[in-house]
Amino acid sequence: MKNLALKMLTLLLALPLVANVADAAEKKVKAGFIYVGPVGDAGWTWSHDQARQEMEKLPFVEPSTFIESVPEGAESARVINGLVRKGHNLIFTTSFGYMDATLDVARRNKDVVFMHCSGFKTAENVGNYFGRMYEPRYLSGIVAGKMTKKNVIGYVAAFPIPEVIRGINAFALGVRSVNPEATVKVVWTQTWFDPGIERDAADSLLDVGADVLAMHQDAPATLQAAEARGAYVIGYNSDMRTFAPKAFLTAPVWNWAPLYKKIAEQVKDGTWKSEAIWWGMDTGMVGLAPMSDQVPAEVQKLVAEKTEAIKAGKFHPFAGPIKDQEGKEKIAAGATASDPELLGMNWFVEGVQGTIPK
Q1: Which among 23, 28, 94, 140 would be 20 to 30 A from 15, CA to CA?
Q2: Which region is the signal sequence (predicted)?
């Protein structure tokens, strides 16, 4: 009898543990996404939404919610709050201007995990994430530097924040690594997604002699302008070659799916912790779209070699010596820009023509 009683007691003590394991296995992730543009932009928002759909295929992820074209700033807090009220336990806010609103909502909802894209602030239940897009930006600059005939390259840029400035600089460094005579002219649009304004900016650069265009914009308008005027173009966000089949050379592109899946798994397992994520080409989050057949084989070979060097940690686009527009040394020979320096970058490298609005 004593042995039987001992066995029954052992079984009873084990039941809560079994139940807890079952509860953990059944935990679901309900994710919500805030987008700055429309899903159909074919660029930034489209790339995030492709990853959302991939994440949703995980068996423990419930059908997710996305809200598109949400204005940045304080107004976005209302939309983020709405996702909280509807029971989402994981919320991705996918543009720089959502940063403070995300933190504000997160302070009042400690049981929800928030992930903010491209910002620099974190909290107990807020992490941030981005990719080292400056790596493929540099590579695309090599292509542009080799393909220009006039040594005038135009760059349609969104907002004068470090993310955009860093990309322009990396691109220009790539250009001048193979063509020191080339310059990169910058025009600001002060918008992420406005095809009309982007097209006007692209045309203005073509008007002053640019024969290759690049961009930090969400719409394919820059590509369409280049196609219409017989110029070459470097895309961004996704492989947009269908919008400019004759003009397209390549594009720095995003693949958010590996990260979104990882975050969802951490939330499910209860292992998520606030951190600042900045993944590079070695993770597959950022990369370069396949190059057009118009890019000569020797250029493609050069880019492939530099790609492997970046992935292996043998080359860094911001390794010195690097000078600014005024010729002042900003990164000394033998030195490499630190992450804080890159994340706060507010100056243009030598070879960039344009100013940074205050």
Answers
A1: 28
A2: 1-24
Q: Looking only at Cα atoms, what is the longest distance across the chain?
A: 96
The residue written with tokens 């805030």 in the block is 34
pLDDT score recorded for residue 237: 97
From CA 243, how far away is CA 247, in angstroms rounded? 9
Answer for the pair 130, 117: CB distance below 8 angstroms, yes or no. Answer: yes
Question: Tokens 């493609």 belong to which residue?
Answer: 300
Contacts of 97 (CB under 8 A, 6+ apart): 36, 72, 73, 76
Token pair recorded at residue 322: 């690097």
- According to DSSP, the β-strands at 286-288 and 276-279 are unpaired
Q: According to the model, what pLDDT value does residue 27 have?
A: 83
- The segments of the chain whose pLDDT lies below 70 read 1-26
Predicted pLDDT of residue 358: 84
Domain extent for 208:
134-251+289-353
Is residue 20 in some structural domain? Answer: no
- What pLDDT, on the 0 to 100 scale, is given for residue 26? 61
Distance CA 92, CA 89 (A): 10
Q: 175, 184 in Cβ contact below 8 A?
A: yes
Name the strands in the sheet holding 113-117, side by side, starting at the edge strand that comes first in the sequence. 65-67, 31-34, 90-93, 113-117, 126-131, 276-279
Give the three-class secondary structure for 253. strand
What letter does residue 348 receive in the DSSP assignment?
P
What pTM was computed for the model? 0.91
